[in-house]
Amino acid sequence: MDEQKDKRSPLVTLLILLNVASTILIFSAVFTIQLLSIAYGTGAGALIQSKQDNMNVTPLLAPSIAKLSSIYWSINESYLLFIIALIIEGIAFLLLFKEGARSRSRYILMHVSLSFIFIALYYIIIASLSVANIELYLFIAAVGILLALASDFYLLYIFESMPRKQGRRVMININPSTPFGNALELQEKIFSQLSGNLRIVDKHFNSSSLENLYRLVSPYLKNISAIRIITSKEMLDKSFATNYNDLKAELAKNNVEIELRVMSDDAAREQHERFMFDSRNAYKIPPFNIITRKSEHIVKISISDAKKRYNELYNSSIKIENYYSISGSKSS
Fold this sequence. Notes:
This protein has helices at residues 2-53, 62-66, 68-95, 101-127, 135-161, 179-189, 207-217, 240-252, 265-270, 303-315, 320-331; strands at residues 196-201, 224-231, 257-262, 275-277, 282-284, 299-300, 318-319. By secondary structure, it is an alpha/beta fold. The chain has two domains: 2-161, Ferritin, CATH 1.20.1260; 179-331, Endonuclease Chain A (Endonuclease, Chain A, 2-Layer Sandwich), CATH 3.30.870. Strands 6-5-4-1-2-3-7 form a seven-stranded mixed sheet, with helices on both faces. Strand 4 and strand 5 form a beta hairpin. The longest helix has 52 residues, at 2-53.
């Protein structure tokens, strides 16, 4: 829990900064409307007054009158600027409550796109102004824009670096009456994609499980360097040791190491979920002894969660060779 909080803390800070930056953009849009309105009112008033008095406009007000038409259109553009700023803030606010790296990335890309539109439109509008002493407001707007873009791009980096939230159903057509065809389906869609160190947690792993495992991985042994299994003593039948040693010798010929460990009784009572994973993918699976007959629990899960749970079980388990020696001592 503490680790999760540590990861979320900088993310929340960035999202708050993004909201602050977006609020600054709203302020900048409102101030732009105010400046344009003053400039237009001043120019229009000077023009009306000069016509009434039949006098030339003073040099100070001449620029406002000369740009009266462009200022009018800039006011209309500034309303659009304000709407864009509101949408930008709305997206930033939604990101505070949005879950999932992928969906958040999409919102960030929308925020970035609208921010660039804001920048372009803001520059066009400001270029039409000829008002003195607005450097401070331009500086504040620049800070808001830079802060928004910096937050956007750093958030994109964080979300793209995050493991994708997994839990997707693996579409495998399993028919309980066709286990051989089911095995081919499992091979094609899951086991052909596995590589490196394959780790399995299945407390019901028995001799039938060893057979199914070999059938499923044998065509792809060149992709696998090691298989590590954690099970419980619950399903260890009398022939298991012989079958395991035979499989171990067979895999050794293909330069694949296999290790099987027995979890503690306490861990076995708490462990109900079965899963397997390599360096890229993790799956929640049915028991290996019936994996070719049952598919409703084959789903992708978080690989980081799978690794964490596996390491906890691994550290509290013992090698099967040691388990049999301990069992033998007890029986004698």
